[in-house]
Amino acid sequence: MLIQKILISPKVSEKIKYKHGLDSIVTKDILEGNRNIEKVGGSNYMAIGLCSNGYITVFFEYEEERN
Asked: What is the pLDDT of residues 13-65, one digit of tens each?
């Protein structure tokens, strides 16, 4: 899967930082880097990747761009 644009709202970024102790840059690195992505239903996906903190699982919604 080729992800062309990653948008993380400031509200979600704060939640990731304070609830899980991760910077949103780490989350973006997981989505952009070497990872395993699986569809979990509808337009929802799960990405599993390795960072300096260990393995991270990111759940996200993917919407294809329409021309």
From this structure: 898 889 888 887 887 888 787 778 899 988 899 989 888 778 888 888 887 76
> What is the rounded end-to-end Cα distance, in angstroms, of the chain?
19
Q: How far is CA 23 from CA 14, 28, 40, 59, in A?
A: 9, 9, 24, 15
Alpha carbon 1 to chain centroid distance?
13
- Residue owning tokens 């997981």: 30
Residue 46 in contact with residue 56, Cβ under 8 Å?
no
pTM: 0.73
Task: Using the Cα atoms of residue 27, residue 49, residue 37 and residue 31 in order, give the sign of their dihedral.
Answer: positive
Axis-axis angle for helices 24-32, 10-20 (nearest 10) = 100
